[in-house]
Amino acid sequence: MSNEFNTPSRRRVIATMTRGKSKEVIMVRHYNYFDTAMPRMLQLAISYCNEGDFIEFASTEFGHQLGVLHVRKGGRFEMEMSSLVKASPSLLKLMSEDTTRQNSLVTAAMNKAKSSSHSRSIH
Questions:
Q1: How many domains does the chain contain in total?
Q2: Does any domain span residue 123?
Q3: Would you state the pLDDT for residue 54?
């Protein structure tokens, strides 16, 4: 049985490329998995980003920020991961497969993220 959370067209991760200080949105892309979004957006950042720009990755289902890729001086990149992703890098994949949210790994990671002071949500 199909619902809005398990249809093939449902994209769970949104990646927003933003110009540094002006906060102008350069590009927005949607992906099924964070594991796919991060390397692809890094490739795009090499072509489109300047020093000070950043890319925010967020879950469209839960509203949590997953991480931020910062473009630093000298063409360096720095990835800041949220506690939710640190708890389980493939958590979004687990969540999509477990629609009842009863998987012990999913529950543990969500509880760990809630108790962490570093957890941030998007607006």
A1: 1
A2: no
A3: 96
